[in-house]
Design brief:
The chain is an alpha/beta fold and about 400 residues long. The chain has one domain: Alkaline Phosphatase, subunit A, CATH 3.40.720. Helices cover about 30% and strands about 15% of the residues. It has 13 helices and 13 strands. The protein is globular.
Length: about 400
């Protein structure tokens, strides 16, 4: 049969990718799970979200000086016909972009917090480098291969780790999960081993006990069996999710969480399209609307489970303060983070606001970073994920006092 299928090792590896061999696994020597703390959903907005157009500092007069055409008006003021109205007032100084209306009840209920002027200590304008460094969480440049979440998971490991403790939604696991056995789930309905039948015997024949890939093959088969037994697809998602890649991904995250036998602790989610160099308002309105509707639907779907779920939203950098000639914004520095959950001290913006006056801008054109993003994540890791070894998670960072974002 092997000769008939021409299934040599190279052929099998090709089939396993093209024909859908899932999960894609990376392995660690110290697996484990504590079962302590919240389930974390880490959502990365790839491309560099313009925080100044998302949570607008309408109380800073220099915002309007820098963005003569792109600026959103203060609360209660209308723009020209067909354009978005005034921002949604949050605290008398900051306001939501009108497209974020679905998040306003969560903010007012105290379950959504915003961190402005947040970002990385590295001021690169490269998407690839900025994302890589933020997900790695170690700026010592010592060439480490692990990510901040991978280190957290490894540090809190005990024997008998659930295969699905760490899940990366999409075709591959996120860089932040590197260093821990993480499973990539492209979709709840599509997950599984697919290829020549009977695939189990094929794997055993290709990867015997002495083969370096034997353990990978064994765990792939085990993951397939565990997923089928838990059957997360039997719990349909709640109503209200947008029919968008992000909305449907979060709907499936909810299915994974409800399948309690899977033992999910951490889920990585990506969404792209946030690089708005041109016609930013037209680009961001649907993106922000989708983000808000997707998060609100996930919150409603999880219901009482949100008491044990934390969602953190981050992006690699913010945008320049001044608009460009194409009514967009170019790569900048200080950005925005969001935290959502039943144990978030929400209903407020956490910001040591550096200001937008010309003399206050970083490199004469960017919002400065006044909150290192690792301060937010460190508080999350300790207070909500139950891991006090912050030096092990962020090895080159002297963690300052917490901001009080999480209970």
């Amino acid at each position: 049969m092997m000769n008939h299928l021409r299934l040599d090792r190279r052929r099998f590896l090709a089939l396993s990718g093209a024909a859908g061999l899932m999960p894609r696994l990376s392995f660690s020597a110290t697996p484990g799970s504590t079962g302590v703390g919240d389930i974390l959903v880490c959502l990365f907005l790839r491309g560099g979200l313009d925080g100044l157009h998302t949570v607008v500092p309408f109380g800073d007069p220099f915002y309007y000086d820098q963005r003569r055409q792109l600026a959103l008006p203060p609360p209660g003021e209308a723009r020209e016909a067909g354009e978005a109205g005034g921002v949604l007032d949050l605290d008398g100084f900051f306001g939501f972009h009108p497209a974020l209306q679905p998040l306003l009840p969560l903010y007012e209920a105290g379950e959504l917090a915003l961190v402005h002027a947040a970002g990385s200590p590295d001021d690169t304008r490269s998407h690839f480098q900025a994302q890589h460094l933020m997900e790695q969480g170690d700026f010592s440049h010592n060439g480490g291969l692990s990510g901040w979440l991978g280190r957290h998971l490894a540090l809190t490991g005990t024997p008998g780790v659930p295969t699905f403790r760490a899940v990366g939604m999409g075709g591959a696991t996120q860089r932040s999960l590197a260093g821990f056995p993480a499973v990539a789930v492209a979709g709840v309905e599509d997950f599984g081993l697919r290829g020549p039948a009977p695939l189990g015997r094929v794997l055993e024949a290709l990867y015997g006990d002495a083969d370096p890939l034997h353990e990978a093959a064994r765990q792939a088969l085990a993951a397939d069996g565990e997923f089928k037994a838990a059957d997360p697809g039997q719990n349909p998602p709640g109503n209200g999710y947008p029919d968008s890649p992000l909305g449907q991904t979060l709907a499936q995250v909810g299915q994974l969480i409800r399948a309690e036998n899977l033992g999910v602790d951490v889920v990585g989610v990506d969404t792209g399209g946030w690089d708005t160099h041109n016609d930013q308002e037209a680009e961001l309105v649907p993106l922000l609307g989708d983000l808000a509707a997707s998060l609100a639907a996930f919150h409603a779907d999880m219901g009482e489970r949100m008491a044990h779920i934390s969602v953190v939203v981050m992006t690699e950098f913010g945008r320049r303060v001044a608009e460009n000639a194409s009514l967009g914004t170019d790569h900048g520095y200080g950005g925005l983070m969001l935290a959502l959950g039943g144990n978030v001290n929400g209903g407020r913006i956490y910001a040591d606001w550096p200001g937008l006056a010309p003399g206050r801008l970083y490199r004469d054109g960017d919002l400065a970073v006044s909150t290192d993003y690792r301060t937010v994540l460190g508080e999350l890791v300790q207070r909500r994920l139950g891991n006090s070894d912050l030096a092990g998670v962020f090895p080159d960072y002297a963690m300052p006092g917490f901001l009080g974002i999480f209970r």
